Amino acid sequence: MLSVYLSGEIHTDWREQIIEGAKGLDVEFSAPVTDHGASDDCGVEILGAEENKYWHDHKGAMVNGIRTRKGIEEADVVVVRFGDKYKQWNAAFDAGYASAMGKSLIILQPPEHDHALKEVDAAALAVTREPGQVVDILRYVLEGTLPK
Questions:
Q1: 67 in a structural domain
Q2: Residue 48 counted as domain residue
Q3: For 49-88, b where at least 16 C-beta lie within 10 A, e where not — what string?
Q4: pLDDT digits (tens, 9 = 90+) for 27-85
Q5: Which Pfam families does the entry link to (predicted)?
Q6: Residue 92: which domain range?
Q7: pTM for this structure?
Q8: Count of domains observed in the chain
Q9: What's the sign of the alpha-carbon dihedral 106, 78, 15, 57?
């Protein structure tokens, strides 16, 4: 079984495309919480309210960090998606963390991010443009077969 952690932007259905495309492969997926409100508010909902937005966000980042670290540490492969709409600083951090841990790293990004992400891309074993390419890599890793 291949364990794959899907990190990055939460505004498109790229995770669902990969999971659907990988049906039939011996793959187990994990991911951060993708409900934006729950992710932002988990710290204050669990640990108590904060008047200062910095500490509100800080508590959320710490609680989310527990899940993120576990997911990356337990993964064989980490896929990090950088989307069009927002700058995903957390995704860049996840890519760096995965790389530092020696994880196989696949980046999923549009071409217009190539220059900005050149250092992240240099740490990856593959840079893809479409979720289907990630599925093709997983299939190749597990079965040694090329796309048809």
A1: no
A2: no
A3: eeeeeeebeebbbebbeeebeebbeebebbbbbbbeeeeb
A4: 999 999 999 999 999 999 999 999 999 999 999 999 999 999 999 999 999 999 999 87
A5: Nuc_deoxyri_tr3
A6: 2-32+72-143
A7: 0.95
A8: 1
A9: negative
Widest CA span in the chain: 55
The CA-based angle 8-93-139, given to 5 degrees, is 50
29 has which bridge partners? 4
98's tokens: 């995965």
Query: Per-residue pLDDT tens for 93-104?
Result: 999 999 999 999
Residue 42 lies in a domain: no
Residue 80: strand, helix, or coil: strand
**Residues present in the chain in total:** 148
Helix segments in the chain, DSSP class H: 14-21, 36-47, 53-74, 89-100, 118-123, 131-143
